[in-house]
Specification:
The complex is a heterodimer of chains A (318) and B (228). Chain A contains 15 helices and 2 strands. By secondary structure, chain A is mostly helical. Chain A has 2 domains: 1-172, no CATH class; 175-314, no CATH class. Chain A has a two-stranded antiparallel sheet. Helices cover 75% and strands 0% of the residues of chain B. With 228 residues, chain B is mainly α. The longest helix of chain B has 33 residues, at 195-227. Chain B has helices at residues 5-15, 20-34, 39-52, 63-71, 74-83, 90-106, 115-135, 140-162, 169-180, 187-192, 195-227. Chain B is built from 11 helices and no strands. Chain B starts with a helix and ends with a helix. The chains are: A mainly alpha (318), B mainly alpha (228). At the A-B interface, helix 1, helix 3, helix 4, helix 5 and helix 6 of A face helix 1, helix 2, helix 3, helix 4 and helix 5 of B.
Amino acid sequence: MITLEHVYWIMGLLSGGVAIVNVRDRSNPKRYNNAAFWGLYAITFLVGSRLPHFATGCIVIAMVLVASIGKLGQGAGESQTAQQRDASAARWGNRLFIPALTIPAVTVLGTFLFKGATLNGVPLVDQKQITSISLGIATVVALIVAMIMLRPPLSAPIHEARRLWDSVGWAAVLPQMLASLGALFAVAGVGKVVAGLAERWIPLDSPFVAVVTYTVGMALFTMIMGNAFAAFPVMTAGIGLPLIMTRFGGNVTIMAAVGMLSGFCGTLMTPMAANYNIVPTALLELPDEYAVIKAQIPTALLLLTVNTLIMYSFVYRH
Amino acid sequence: MLTLIGILIVVAGFAARLNPLLVVTVAGLATGLASGLGPIEVVTAFGKAFTESRYVAIVWLVLPVIGLLERAGLKERARTVIAGIPAATTGRVLAIYFAVRQISAALGLISLGGHAQMVRPLVAPMAEGAAENQYGPLPLAIRRRIRAHSAAVDNIAVFFGEDIFIAIGSILLIKGFLEQNGIRVEPAQLALWAIPTAIAAWVIHNVRLVLLDRSLRRDLMAKTKGDA
Protein backbone atom coordinates (compact mmCIF):
# COMPACT_ATOMS: atom_id res chain seq x y z
CA MET A 1 0.00 0.00 0.00
CA ILE A 2 1.24 3.47 -0.86
CA THR A 3 0.97 5.74 2.19
CA LEU A 4 1.94 9.30 3.03
CA GLU A 5 5.19 7.88 4.44
CA HIS A 6 6.40 7.16 0.89
CA VAL A 7 5.58 10.72 -0.19
CA TYR A 8 7.53 11.96 2.84
CA TRP A 9 10.57 9.95 1.69
CA ILE A 10 10.50 11.83 -1.63
CA MET A 11 10.15 15.10 0.31
CA GLY A 12 13.17 14.08 2.38
CA LEU A 13 15.20 13.36 -0.77
CA LEU A 14 14.20 16.74 -2.24
CA SER A 15 15.04 18.64 0.93
CA GLY A 16 18.30 16.71 1.40
CA GLY A 17 19.25 17.30 -2.24
CA VAL A 18 18.63 21.02 -1.84
CA ALA A 19 20.87 21.00 1.24
CA ILE A 20 23.70 19.31 -0.71
CA VAL A 21 23.45 21.74 -3.64
CA ASN A 22 23.64 24.57 -1.13
CA VAL A 23 26.78 23.25 0.59
CA ARG A 24 28.61 23.18 -2.74
CA ASP A 25 27.47 26.64 -3.86
CA ARG A 26 30.20 29.19 -3.13
CA SER A 27 28.10 32.02 -4.57
CA ASN A 28 25.82 31.88 -1.52
CA PRO A 29 27.41 33.64 1.48
CA LYS A 30 25.05 31.79 3.85
CA ARG A 31 25.46 28.39 2.22
CA TYR A 32 26.12 26.48 5.46
CA ASN A 33 23.02 27.97 7.11
CA ASN A 34 20.88 27.02 4.11
CA ALA A 35 22.37 23.53 4.09
CA ALA A 36 21.72 23.08 7.82
CA PHE A 37 18.13 24.33 7.51
CA TRP A 38 17.12 22.08 4.60
CA GLY A 39 19.23 19.19 5.93
CA LEU A 40 17.42 19.24 9.30
CA TYR A 41 14.10 19.55 7.48
CA ALA A 42 15.03 16.47 5.41
CA ILE A 43 15.54 14.48 8.63
CA THR A 44 11.98 15.27 9.80
CA PHE A 45 10.68 13.69 6.57
CA LEU A 46 13.04 10.73 6.23
CA VAL A 47 12.88 9.44 9.81
CA GLY A 48 10.31 11.74 11.45
CA SER A 49 7.78 8.94 11.90
CA ARG A 50 10.25 6.82 13.89
CA LEU A 51 12.06 9.61 15.76
CA PRO A 52 10.89 10.40 19.32
CA HIS A 53 8.72 13.54 19.17
CA PHE A 54 11.07 15.25 21.63
CA ALA A 55 13.95 14.85 19.15
CA THR A 56 11.83 16.25 16.31
CA GLY A 57 10.90 19.18 18.55
CA CYS A 58 14.60 19.91 19.12
CA ILE A 59 15.32 19.66 15.37
CA VAL A 60 12.54 22.14 14.62
CA ILE A 61 13.83 24.58 17.25
CA ALA A 62 17.32 24.29 15.73
CA MET A 63 15.86 25.06 12.26
CA VAL A 64 14.10 28.13 13.66
CA LEU A 65 17.32 29.38 15.28
CA VAL A 66 19.28 28.90 12.03
CA ALA A 67 16.64 30.81 10.04
CA SER A 68 15.99 33.64 12.51
CA ILE A 69 19.41 34.27 14.08
CA GLY A 70 21.78 32.79 11.50
CA LYS A 71 19.62 33.93 8.53
CA LEU A 72 19.31 32.16 5.18
CA GLY A 73 20.83 33.40 1.92
CA GLN A 74 20.43 32.83 -1.79
CA GLY A 75 22.90 31.55 -4.35
CA ALA A 76 23.47 32.83 -7.89
CA GLY A 77 20.23 33.49 -9.78
CA GLU A 78 18.96 31.90 -12.95
CA SER A 79 20.90 29.08 -14.58
CA GLN A 80 19.87 30.31 -18.06
CA THR A 81 19.93 33.82 -19.48
CA ALA A 82 16.74 35.55 -20.61
CA GLN A 83 17.84 35.05 -24.24
CA GLN A 84 18.32 31.32 -23.72
CA ARG A 85 14.89 31.05 -22.13
CA ASP A 86 13.26 33.03 -24.95
CA ALA A 87 14.90 30.77 -27.52
CA SER A 88 13.81 27.69 -25.64
CA ALA A 89 10.26 29.03 -25.30
CA ALA A 90 10.12 29.64 -29.06
CA ARG A 91 11.47 26.16 -29.74
CA TRP A 92 9.06 24.23 -27.49
CA GLY A 93 6.00 26.46 -27.89
CA ASN A 94 2.81 25.28 -26.26
CA ARG A 95 4.30 21.85 -25.54
CA LEU A 96 5.85 23.51 -22.48
CA PHE A 97 2.39 23.50 -20.91
CA ILE A 98 2.11 19.70 -21.08
CA PRO A 99 4.23 18.84 -18.00
CA ALA A 100 2.75 21.80 -16.08
CA LEU A 101 -0.80 20.63 -16.72
CA THR A 102 0.17 17.02 -16.03
CA ILE A 103 0.30 17.90 -12.32
CA PRO A 104 -3.38 18.84 -11.86
CA ALA A 105 -4.53 16.26 -14.43
CA VAL A 106 -2.80 13.33 -12.73
CA THR A 107 -3.82 14.56 -9.26
CA VAL A 108 -7.48 14.68 -10.23
CA LEU A 109 -7.24 11.37 -12.09
CA GLY A 110 -5.57 9.79 -9.05
CA THR A 111 -8.32 10.89 -6.67
CA PHE A 112 -10.83 9.02 -8.86
CA LEU A 113 -8.78 5.95 -9.79
CA PHE A 114 -7.32 5.22 -6.34
CA LYS A 115 -10.68 5.36 -4.58
CA GLY A 116 -11.45 1.74 -3.71
CA ALA A 117 -8.61 0.37 -5.90
CA THR A 118 -7.07 -2.77 -4.39
CA LEU A 119 -4.10 -5.02 -5.14
CA ASN A 120 -4.36 -8.59 -3.77
CA GLY A 121 -7.09 -7.41 -1.41
CA VAL A 122 -4.99 -4.58 0.06
CA PRO A 123 -5.91 -0.97 -0.84
CA LEU A 124 -3.43 0.31 -3.42
CA VAL A 125 -3.31 3.72 -1.71
CA ASP A 126 -4.08 4.77 1.87
CA GLN A 127 -7.75 5.67 1.41
CA LYS A 128 -7.69 8.51 3.94
CA GLN A 129 -4.89 10.38 2.16
CA ILE A 130 -5.82 9.93 -1.50
CA THR A 131 -5.56 13.61 -2.51
CA SER A 132 -2.17 14.24 -0.89
CA ILE A 133 -0.72 11.00 -2.26
CA SER A 134 -2.15 11.70 -5.73
CA LEU A 135 -0.46 15.11 -5.69
CA GLY A 136 2.82 13.47 -4.69
CA ILE A 137 2.55 10.92 -7.51
CA ALA A 138 1.51 13.64 -10.00
CA THR A 139 4.64 15.69 -9.31
CA VAL A 140 6.83 12.63 -9.99
CA VAL A 141 4.96 11.79 -13.21
CA ALA A 142 5.19 15.41 -14.40
CA LEU A 143 8.91 15.47 -13.65
CA ILE A 144 9.45 12.30 -15.68
CA VAL A 145 7.45 13.77 -18.59
CA ALA A 146 9.48 17.00 -18.44
CA MET A 147 12.82 15.14 -18.26
CA ILE A 148 11.98 12.95 -21.29
CA MET A 149 10.69 15.91 -23.26
CA LEU A 150 13.35 18.54 -22.47
CA ARG A 151 16.37 16.28 -21.84
CA PRO A 152 18.14 18.71 -19.49
CA PRO A 153 21.22 17.65 -17.46
CA LEU A 154 20.22 15.06 -14.83
CA SER A 155 21.09 17.44 -11.99
CA ALA A 156 18.88 20.25 -13.38
CA PRO A 157 15.68 19.42 -11.42
CA ILE A 158 17.39 19.58 -8.03
CA HIS A 159 19.29 22.76 -8.95
CA GLU A 160 16.08 24.42 -10.17
CA ALA A 161 14.17 23.24 -7.09
CA ARG A 162 16.94 24.75 -4.96
CA ARG A 163 16.65 28.08 -6.83
CA LEU A 164 12.88 28.25 -6.21
CA TRP A 165 12.93 26.91 -2.65
CA ASP A 166 15.68 29.29 -1.55
CA SER A 167 13.72 32.20 -3.02
CA VAL A 168 10.82 31.15 -0.78
CA GLY A 169 13.21 30.54 2.12
CA TRP A 170 11.94 29.95 5.65
CA ALA A 171 8.38 30.86 4.57
CA ALA A 172 8.19 27.36 3.08
CA VAL A 173 8.09 25.88 6.58
CA LEU A 174 5.75 28.50 8.07
CA PRO A 175 2.42 26.81 7.17
CA GLN A 176 3.56 23.64 8.92
CA MET A 177 4.68 25.63 11.98
CA LEU A 178 1.33 27.40 12.15
CA ALA A 179 -0.51 24.08 11.95
CA SER A 180 1.62 22.96 14.90
CA LEU A 181 0.80 26.14 16.80
CA GLY A 182 -2.90 25.50 16.19
CA ALA A 183 -2.50 22.04 17.70
CA LEU A 184 -0.80 23.51 20.78
CA PHE A 185 -3.57 26.14 21.08
CA ALA A 186 -6.09 23.30 21.05
CA VAL A 187 -4.22 21.37 23.74
CA ALA A 188 -4.08 24.48 25.93
CA GLY A 189 -7.80 25.24 25.43
CA VAL A 190 -7.27 28.71 23.92
CA GLY A 191 -10.56 28.52 22.00
CA LYS A 192 -12.73 28.03 25.07
CA VAL A 193 -11.14 30.99 26.84
CA VAL A 194 -11.81 33.28 23.86
CA ALA A 195 -15.43 32.10 23.47
CA GLY A 196 -15.95 32.61 27.21
CA LEU A 197 -14.69 36.20 26.92
CA ALA A 198 -17.02 36.91 23.99
CA GLU A 199 -20.03 35.55 25.88
CA ARG A 200 -19.23 37.63 28.95
CA TRP A 201 -18.60 40.97 27.24
CA ILE A 202 -20.99 41.16 24.30
CA PRO A 203 -24.71 41.77 25.02
CA LEU A 204 -26.31 38.99 23.00
CA ASP A 205 -29.95 39.79 23.61
CA SER A 206 -31.21 40.27 20.05
CA PRO A 207 -31.33 37.84 17.10
CA PHE A 208 -29.45 40.34 14.92
CA VAL A 209 -26.61 40.87 17.41
CA ALA A 210 -26.29 37.11 17.78
CA VAL A 211 -25.85 36.73 14.00
CA VAL A 212 -23.32 39.57 13.77
CA THR A 213 -21.34 38.21 16.72
CA TYR A 214 -21.29 34.77 15.15
CA THR A 215 -20.19 35.82 11.63
CA VAL A 216 -17.71 38.50 12.73
CA GLY A 217 -16.53 36.22 15.54
CA MET A 218 -15.89 33.42 13.03
CA ALA A 219 -13.82 35.83 10.88
CA LEU A 220 -11.85 37.26 13.83
CA PHE A 221 -11.23 33.92 15.48
CA THR A 222 -10.15 32.46 12.13
CA MET A 223 -7.69 35.33 11.80
CA ILE A 224 -6.22 34.42 15.19
CA MET A 225 -6.08 30.67 14.58
CA GLY A 226 -5.23 30.96 10.86
CA ASN A 227 -7.87 28.36 10.04
CA ALA A 228 -11.67 28.41 9.87
CA PHE A 229 -11.73 24.72 10.82
CA ALA A 230 -10.28 25.55 14.25
CA ALA A 231 -12.65 28.47 14.77
CA PHE A 232 -15.87 26.70 13.76
CA PRO A 233 -16.31 24.26 16.67
CA VAL A 234 -15.50 26.95 19.25
CA MET A 235 -17.76 29.70 17.87
CA THR A 236 -20.59 27.31 17.04
CA ALA A 237 -20.57 25.71 20.49
CA GLY A 238 -20.18 29.10 22.19
CA ILE A 239 -22.59 31.32 20.23
CA GLY A 240 -24.19 29.55 17.27
CA LEU A 241 -25.95 26.62 18.92
CA PRO A 242 -26.99 28.15 22.30
CA LEU A 243 -28.12 31.53 20.92
CA ILE A 244 -28.97 31.51 17.20
CA MET A 245 -30.43 27.99 17.20
CA THR A 246 -31.78 27.29 20.71
CA ARG A 247 -32.74 30.71 22.03
CA PHE A 248 -33.85 32.48 18.85
CA GLY A 249 -34.96 29.38 16.91
CA GLY A 250 -32.66 29.77 13.87
CA ASN A 251 -32.08 27.16 11.14
CA VAL A 252 -28.93 25.21 11.97
CA THR A 253 -28.03 24.31 8.37
CA ILE A 254 -28.01 27.91 7.15
CA MET A 255 -26.21 29.03 10.29
CA ALA A 256 -23.43 26.46 9.95
CA ALA A 257 -22.95 26.81 6.18
CA VAL A 258 -22.79 30.62 6.15
CA GLY A 259 -20.84 30.66 9.43
CA MET A 260 -18.05 28.58 7.90
CA LEU A 261 -17.93 30.89 4.86
CA SER A 262 -17.63 33.89 7.20
CA GLY A 263 -14.59 32.18 8.66
CA PHE A 264 -13.13 31.94 5.14
CA CYS A 265 -13.38 35.77 4.91
CA GLY A 266 -11.09 35.84 7.97
CA THR A 267 -8.65 33.43 6.28
CA LEU A 268 -8.19 36.02 3.49
CA MET A 269 -7.08 38.68 5.99
CA THR A 270 -4.52 36.97 8.24
CA PRO A 271 -0.80 36.22 8.00
CA MET A 272 -1.57 33.19 10.18
CA ALA A 273 -2.98 31.49 7.06
CA ALA A 274 0.56 31.48 5.71
CA ASN A 275 0.15 28.92 2.95
CA TYR A 276 -2.50 31.10 1.28
CA ASN A 277 -1.24 34.58 2.13
CA ILE A 278 2.49 34.61 2.96
CA VAL A 279 3.93 31.79 0.84
CA PRO A 280 2.64 33.30 -2.46
CA THR A 281 4.37 36.62 -1.68
CA ALA A 282 7.62 34.68 -1.40
CA LEU A 283 6.87 32.61 -4.52
CA LEU A 284 6.03 35.74 -6.54
CA GLU A 285 9.04 37.65 -5.20
CA LEU A 286 7.00 40.41 -3.54
CA PRO A 287 9.02 42.33 -0.92
CA ASP A 288 5.87 43.23 1.11
CA GLU A 289 4.80 39.99 2.78
CA TYR A 290 1.32 41.45 3.33
CA ALA A 291 0.82 42.33 -0.38
CA VAL A 292 -1.60 39.44 -1.05
CA ILE A 293 -3.59 40.14 2.13
CA LYS A 294 -3.90 43.80 1.09
CA ALA A 295 -5.25 42.75 -2.30
CA GLN A 296 -7.82 40.51 -0.58
CA ILE A 297 -9.10 42.72 2.25
CA PRO A 298 -11.74 44.71 0.26
CA THR A 299 -13.35 41.52 -1.11
CA ALA A 300 -13.14 39.83 2.30
CA LEU A 301 -14.85 42.70 4.17
CA LEU A 302 -17.61 43.12 1.57
CA LEU A 303 -18.23 39.39 1.54
CA LEU A 304 -18.34 39.21 5.33
CA THR A 305 -21.05 41.90 5.24
CA VAL A 306 -22.95 39.94 2.58
CA ASN A 307 -22.66 36.74 4.64
CA THR A 308 -24.04 38.49 7.70
CA LEU A 309 -27.00 39.81 5.69
CA ILE A 310 -27.63 36.40 4.07
CA MET A 311 -27.64 34.69 7.44
CA TYR A 312 -29.87 37.29 9.11
CA SER A 313 -32.30 37.27 6.16
CA PHE A 314 -32.81 33.51 6.05
CA VAL A 315 -31.75 31.85 9.29
CA TYR A 316 -34.84 32.84 11.29
CA ARG A 317 -37.29 32.31 8.43
CA HIS A 318 -38.60 28.76 8.09
CA MET B 1 -6.26 34.02 30.89
CA LEU B 2 -2.57 33.09 30.83
CA THR B 3 -3.36 30.61 28.03
CA LEU B 4 -3.93 33.61 25.73
CA ILE B 5 -0.25 34.63 25.98
CA GLY B 6 0.43 32.82 22.69
CA ILE B 7 -2.06 35.01 20.83
CA LEU B 8 -0.49 38.11 22.37
CA ILE B 9 2.99 37.00 21.26
CA VAL B 10 1.80 36.27 17.74
CA VAL B 11 0.03 39.62 17.33
CA ALA B 12 2.94 41.60 18.80
CA GLY B 13 5.56 39.61 16.88
CA PHE B 14 3.80 39.90 13.51
CA ALA B 15 3.15 43.62 14.11
CA ALA B 16 6.85 44.17 14.89
CA ARG B 17 7.68 42.12 11.74
CA LEU B 18 10.02 39.79 13.62
CA ASN B 19 10.87 36.53 11.86
CA PRO B 20 7.49 34.71 11.81
CA LEU B 21 9.09 31.29 12.35
CA LEU B 22 10.62 32.54 15.60
CA VAL B 23 7.40 34.28 16.67
CA VAL B 24 5.30 31.17 16.09
CA THR B 25 7.76 28.90 17.88
CA VAL B 26 7.98 31.17 20.92
CA ALA B 27 4.18 31.53 20.97
CA GLY B 28 3.76 27.76 20.83
CA LEU B 29 6.27 27.07 23.59
CA ALA B 30 4.82 29.84 25.79
CA THR B 31 1.25 28.57 25.30
CA GLY B 32 2.33 25.07 26.29
CA LEU B 33 4.18 26.29 29.39
CA ALA B 34 1.26 28.55 30.38
CA SER B 35 -1.13 25.61 30.20
CA GLY B 36 0.98 23.75 32.77
CA LEU B 37 3.18 21.47 30.65
CA GLY B 38 6.85 21.02 31.63
CA PRO B 39 9.64 22.14 29.23
CA ILE B 40 10.30 18.63 27.89
CA GLU B 41 6.59 17.95 27.45
CA VAL B 42 6.18 21.21 25.52
CA VAL B 43 9.01 20.41 23.10
CA THR B 44 7.58 16.90 22.72
CA ALA B 45 4.10 18.27 21.98
CA PHE B 46 5.63 20.69 19.46
CA GLY B 47 7.59 17.92 17.75
CA LYS B 48 4.49 15.73 17.60
CA ALA B 49 2.37 18.52 16.11
CA PHE B 50 5.10 19.30 13.55
CA THR B 51 5.41 15.64 12.54
CA GLU B 52 1.65 15.30 12.13
CA SER B 53 1.48 18.48 10.03
CA ARG B 54 4.01 17.32 7.45
CA TYR B 55 1.28 16.74 4.85
CA VAL B 56 1.00 20.56 4.54
CA ALA B 57 4.43 20.61 2.86
CA ILE B 58 3.71 18.08 0.09
CA VAL B 59 2.88 20.88 -2.35
CA TRP B 60 6.62 21.71 -2.50
CA LEU B 61 7.19 18.53 -4.47
CA VAL B 62 6.09 20.53 -7.54
CA LEU B 63 9.24 22.68 -7.37
CA PRO B 64 11.63 20.45 -9.39
CA VAL B 65 9.30 20.22 -12.39
CA ILE B 66 8.14 23.86 -12.21
CA GLY B 67 11.78 24.98 -11.92
CA LEU B 68 12.74 22.82 -14.88
CA LEU B 69 9.93 24.29 -17.00
CA GLU B 70 10.87 27.84 -16.02
CA ARG B 71 14.42 27.06 -17.10
CA ALA B 72 12.99 25.99 -20.47
CA GLY B 73 11.03 29.26 -20.83
CA LEU B 74 7.54 28.43 -19.50
CA LYS B 75 6.88 31.95 -18.17
CA GLU B 76 8.10 33.50 -21.43
CA ARG B 77 5.78 31.19 -23.39
CA ALA B 78 2.81 32.07 -21.16
CA ARG B 79 3.42 35.76 -21.93
CA THR B 80 3.71 35.12 -25.67
CA VAL B 81 0.42 33.24 -25.75
CA ILE B 82 -1.34 36.20 -24.15
CA ALA B 83 0.41 38.60 -26.53
CA GLY B 84 -1.41 36.84 -29.37
CA ILE B 85 -4.81 37.79 -27.90
CA PRO B 86 -5.37 41.54 -28.41
CA ALA B 87 -8.56 41.58 -26.28
CA ALA B 88 -6.71 40.25 -23.22
CA THR B 89 -6.36 42.61 -20.26
CA THR B 90 -5.02 41.85 -16.79
CA GLY B 91 -8.52 41.98 -15.31
CA ARG B 92 -10.00 39.72 -17.99
CA VAL B 93 -7.22 37.14 -17.71
CA LEU B 94 -7.75 37.03 -13.95
CA ALA B 95 -11.55 36.93 -14.33
CA ILE B 96 -11.27 33.87 -16.57
CA TYR B 97 -8.95 32.15 -14.12
CA PHE B 98 -11.36 33.07 -11.29
CA ALA B 99 -14.27 31.41 -13.11
CA VAL B 100 -12.30 28.27 -14.00
CA ARG B 101 -10.94 27.93 -10.46
CA GLN B 102 -14.30 28.54 -8.75
CA ILE B 103 -16.26 26.18 -11.00
CA SER B 104 -13.66 23.40 -10.81
CA ALA B 105 -13.54 23.77 -7.00
CA ALA B 106 -17.34 23.54 -6.89
CA LEU B 107 -16.99 20.21 -8.71
CA GLY B 108 -14.53 19.04 -6.06
CA LEU B 109 -11.41 19.57 -8.20
CA ILE B 110 -9.56 21.80 -5.75
CA SER B 111 -6.15 20.59 -6.95
CA LEU B 112 -6.64 22.33 -10.33
CA GLY B 113 -4.77 25.41 -9.12
CA GLY B 114 -2.44 26.62 -6.43
CA HIS B 115 0.29 29.21 -6.08
CA ALA B 116 3.32 27.05 -6.87
CA GLN B 117 1.70 25.00 -9.66
CA MET B 118 -0.44 27.57 -11.48
CA VAL B 119 -0.05 31.16 -10.26
CA ARG B 120 3.73 31.57 -10.40
CA PRO B 121 4.45 29.77 -13.68
CA LEU B 122 1.24 30.56 -15.63
CA VAL B 123 -1.38 32.94 -14.22
CA ALA B 124 0.87 35.76 -13.02
CA PRO B 125 3.00 35.85 -16.22
CA MET B 126 -0.20 35.89 -18.31
CA ALA B 127 -1.73 38.70 -16.26
CA GLU B 128 1.51 40.69 -16.51
CA GLY B 129 1.81 39.89 -20.21
CA ALA B 130 -1.67 41.26 -20.92
CA ALA B 131 -0.79 44.60 -19.32
CA GLU B 132 2.57 44.67 -21.14
CA ASN B 133 0.73 44.11 -24.39
CA GLN B 134 -1.42 47.15 -23.83
CA TYR B 135 1.03 49.55 -22.24
CA GLY B 136 4.57 48.37 -22.99
CA PRO B 137 7.16 47.50 -20.32
CA LEU B 138 5.74 47.72 -16.79
CA PRO B 139 7.27 49.45 -13.76
CA LEU B 140 8.22 46.96 -11.03
CA ALA B 141 5.59 48.30 -8.60
CA ILE B 142 2.82 47.57 -11.14
CA ARG B 143 4.20 44.10 -11.81
CA ARG B 144 4.09 43.38 -8.11
CA ARG B 145 0.53 44.66 -7.80
CA ILE B 146 -0.60 42.39 -10.64
CA ARG B 147 1.16 39.40 -9.04
CA ALA B 148 -0.49 40.03 -5.67
CA HIS B 149 -3.88 40.15 -7.40
CA SER B 150 -3.11 36.90 -9.22
CA ALA B 151 -2.48 35.14 -5.91
CA ALA B 152 -5.62 36.70 -4.40
CA VAL B 153 -7.79 35.39 -7.26
CA ASP B 154 -6.55 31.86 -6.68
CA ASN B 155 -7.44 32.04 -2.96
CA ILE B 156 -10.83 33.73 -3.24
CA ALA B 157 -12.07 31.56 -6.10
CA VAL B 158 -11.20 28.29 -4.38
CA PHE B 159 -12.49 29.33 -0.93
CA PHE B 160 -15.92 30.31 -2.21
CA GLY B 161 -16.19 27.50 -4.73
CA GLU B 162 -15.18 24.43 -2.76
CA ASP B 163 -18.06 24.54 -0.26
CA ILE B 164 -20.55 23.85 -3.06
CA PHE B 165 -19.00 20.37 -3.34
CA ILE B 166 -20.65 18.08 -0.81
CA ALA B 167 -17.62 15.94 0.06
CA ILE B 168 -15.19 18.79 0.81
CA GLY B 169 -13.39 18.93 4.17
CA SER B 170 -15.30 21.88 5.61
CA ILE B 171 -18.73 20.35 4.88
CA LEU B 172 -17.62 17.08 6.48
CA LEU B 173 -16.30 19.00 9.50
CA ILE B 174 -19.62 20.84 9.95
CA LYS B 175 -21.57 17.59 9.65
CA GLY B 176 -19.27 15.76 12.07
CA PHE B 177 -19.28 18.54 14.66
CA LEU B 178 -23.06 18.93 14.61
CA GLU B 179 -23.51 15.15 14.89
CA GLN B 180 -21.41 15.17 18.06
CA ASN B 181 -23.95 17.67 19.38
CA GLY B 182 -26.85 15.42 18.44
CA ILE B 183 -27.91 17.40 15.34
CA ARG B 184 -28.29 15.80 11.91
CA VAL B 185 -27.78 17.97 8.81
CA GLU B 186 -27.74 17.03 5.14
CA PRO B 187 -24.41 17.75 3.36
CA ALA B 188 -26.40 18.59 0.21
CA GLN B 189 -28.31 21.28 2.13
CA LEU B 190 -25.08 22.73 3.54
CA ALA B 191 -23.62 22.82 0.02
CA LEU B 192 -26.78 24.49 -1.30
CA TRP B 193 -26.44 27.30 1.24
CA ALA B 194 -22.87 27.95 0.04
CA ILE B 195 -24.23 29.04 -3.35
CA PRO B 196 -25.47 32.58 -2.45
CA THR B 197 -22.06 33.48 -0.97
CA ALA B 198 -20.30 31.93 -3.99
CA ILE B 199 -22.32 34.14 -6.34
CA ALA B 200 -21.65 37.21 -4.18
CA ALA B 201 -17.90 36.44 -4.18
CA TRP B 202 -17.93 36.13 -7.96
CA VAL B 203 -19.80 39.43 -8.44
CA ILE B 204 -17.72 41.38 -5.90
CA HIS B 205 -14.39 40.18 -7.16
CA ASN B 206 -15.23 40.61 -10.84
CA VAL B 207 -16.19 44.23 -10.17
CA ARG B 208 -12.86 44.66 -8.41
CA LEU B 209 -11.03 43.20 -11.42
CA VAL B 210 -12.76 45.70 -13.72
CA LEU B 211 -11.62 48.43 -11.33
CA LEU B 212 -8.10 46.97 -11.38
CA ASP B 213 -8.04 47.31 -15.19
CA ARG B 214 -9.17 50.93 -14.88
CA SER B 215 -6.57 51.80 -12.28
CA LEU B 216 -3.85 50.12 -14.37
CA ARG B 217 -4.92 52.17 -17.38
CA ARG B 218 -4.88 55.37 -15.33
CA ASP B 219 -1.44 54.68 -13.83
CA LEU B 220 0.18 53.40 -17.02
CA MET B 221 -1.30 56.02 -19.38
CA ALA B 222 0.00 58.74 -17.06
CA LYS B 223 3.40 57.11 -17.18
CA THR B 224 3.38 56.87 -21.00
CA LYS B 225 2.44 60.53 -21.27
CA GLY B 226 5.11 61.47 -18.74
CA ASP B 227 7.71 59.68 -20.85
CA ALA B 228 6.68 61.45 -24.03
